[in-house]
Amino acid sequence: MQRRVIFDNRALPYLLLAPQVAVTLIFFIWPAAQALWQSVHLQDAFGLRSQFVGLENFESVLSDPNYLETVKTTIIFSASVTVLSLASALGLAVMADSKIRAASAYKTLLIWPYALAPAVAAVLWMFIFNPDIGILGRALNNLGYAWDYRLNDGQALTMVILAASWKQVSYNFIFFLAGLQAIPRSVLEAASIDGAGAVRRFWTITFPLLSPTTFFLLVVNIVYAFFETFGTIHALTHGGPGKATETLIFRVYQDGVVNHDLGGSSAQSVILMVIVIALTAIQFRFVERKVHYS
Amino acid sequence: MTRDRADPRSGGRLMDMVPHLILMLGVLIFAFPIYVTIIGSTWDAATIGRGNLPLTPGGEMLNNYASAWSESQGNRVMHTPVRIMMWNSLVMALVIALGKIAISIISAYAVAFFRFPLRMVFFWMIFITLMLPVEVRIIPTYEVVANLGLIDSYAGLTIPLIASATATLLFRQFFLTIPDELVEAAKIDGAGALRFFVDVVLPLSRTNIAALFVILFIYGWNQYLWPLLITNSAEMETVVIGITKMIGNGEAATDWNLIMATTVLAMLPPVAVVVLMQRWFVKGLVDSEK
């Protein structure tokens, strides 16, 4: 799309675009191309020589049972974070949208966690659930439940899921609340006059009308769980115990930065890029459809 | 009961209690970890280390904050003084927020108000960066920054994160809604493109800029993976990274009192920005959906 009335100037538009284009070329396009190049080459540990190996890096990544285990962890982690944070945010938003006193105070108290860094959220959780010093961690042990997320795989995964979801609820809450407030009151009133109870009104009217918001949030939450939770996991468990909380993005970091396996790490990066592109494409097709509706 | 019919969002008297209870529970779940952290920052390390943290404030608050703020060593852990880390975080958050806004608004202006060769090529090039989060290209981006000699510098910390397709798209979207008549009038008055930008477009974009500023400030302040890679020296450490380094392996024998004080300090600026600028922040988030 383009405006009808525009300015005539030869050099100016290029000048205005220059900073953005320069940053994009140097720090986005070039490294992405580099990742593609490295993913089909084998480099020695010092980066002195490299050899074209085709899809060998991808083959070895995808046939590594460890990697498939990481894929499984990532799926469990992302699905849990998405479902947990969407469901609790929706519940809270529906409650905050009902006509009650102090609704705006609740809203303020519920949206500030958006401002927390994922890693800081992890520190808060660690301080409470640490088996030695945490109030709840010690309480669990005193109740006879052997709680130590530093040793137990399942407990570690539960911890990172809860900490990551906890931080995301406020973001989802804001969108659900905006979605709810856009639903015309008259529709709900009509249903109410027809004798539909609160629960029925929610499932037959509110929830379907919220589906664009829900779908948008679904994609955003999957992207969040995939990429932005690196800080949560790094601060809370360092991927451990063993590899119990290692997600795909954590592994790119681990293999590339810690273990210096450039080819393997780049192949993993390329796989992740494909996932992001797919998610973005789904989102945009959907947004386009939504535009047609309105 | 007539009240029920009139307003479908309100139930009976008993039903009115349910939202309050659920919302209070939600607030409690969010507030409890913060409360414990604030309490933790007012006790000495030994009390916390023994695992008997009371739920009431202790008397070490001033000591803890003062030593976290300006000293580089507690009883057990070394750390960068928090005032240095907070400064680094502040510089990083401000440069990223203002830099992103500045370069996005002028590039959006170019794409929206001019017609020139390769316009769509540039547009798509910016657009495609939406699909390349820093996490998926960390190693090659690190190499580029290292080759440019930008490791351990504010430039290395901020410039690679400054390009933003989202902000560019948002501004472009908004620019397309500026009426043609306004542009015509400005042209008749003899105003050039730059004049129009400064006198008309910038003032009109005020709310968008404020909204984006809040979101981008928090984005910058909360960065984790990038500063972890790009900074080695203590002098360049950001506060979010600094806290997790202080924790180490999370043993009981750690200066938890200092860690808690640092955590509280690290939370203050972004939370303050969100709470004080709530209106713009929510507007910015919900608008950027489109």
Percent of residues in helices of chain A: over 70%
Rg on CA atoms of chain B, Å: 24 Å
Greatest contact between two chains: A-B, 105 and 115 residues
Q: How far apart lie the N and C ends of chain A?
A: 18 Å
Strand order of the largest sheet of chain A: 1-2
Kindly estimate the percentage of residues of chain B that lie in beta strands according to DSSP: under 5%
Helix content of chain B: 55-70%
Query: How does the helix and strand content of chain B classify structurally?
Result: mainly alpha
> Which ranges of chain B are low-confidence, i.e. pLDDT below 50, for 5 or more consecutive residues?
1-6
Largest sheet of chain A: 2 strands, antiparallel
The helix-strand sequence of chain A is HEEHHHHHHHHHHHH
Protein model, in words:
The complex is a heterodimer of chains A (294) and B (290). Chain A has 294 residues and is mainly alpha-helical. In chain A, 73% of the residues lie in helices and 2% in strands. Chain A has a two-stranded antiparallel ribbon with strand order 1-2. In chain A, strand 1 and strand 2 form a beta hairpin. In chain A, helix 3 packs parallel to helix 7. The two termini of chain A are 18 Å apart. The model of chain A has no long low-confidence stretch (mean pLDDT 87). Chain B has 290 residues and is an all-alpha fold. The N terminus of chain B is likely disordered. The interface between A and B is large, with 105 and 115 residues.
What is the strand and helix layout of this fold?
The complex is a heterodimer of chains A (294) and B (290).
Chain A: H1 12-39, E1 41-43, E2 50-52, H2 56-62, H3 65-97, H4 103-111, H5 118-129, H6 135-142, H7 153-181, H8 185-193, H9 198-209, H10 211-228, H11 230-236, H12 248-258, H13 262-293
Chain B: H1 2-6, H2 13-40, H3 45-49, H4 61-70, H5 82-113, H6 119-128, H7 138-147, H8 154-158, H9 165-175, H10 180-188, H11 193-204, H12 206-221, H13 225-230, H14 239-247, H15 256-276, H16 278-287
Helix pairs in contact in B: 2-15, 4-15, 5-9, 5-12, 12-16, 14-15
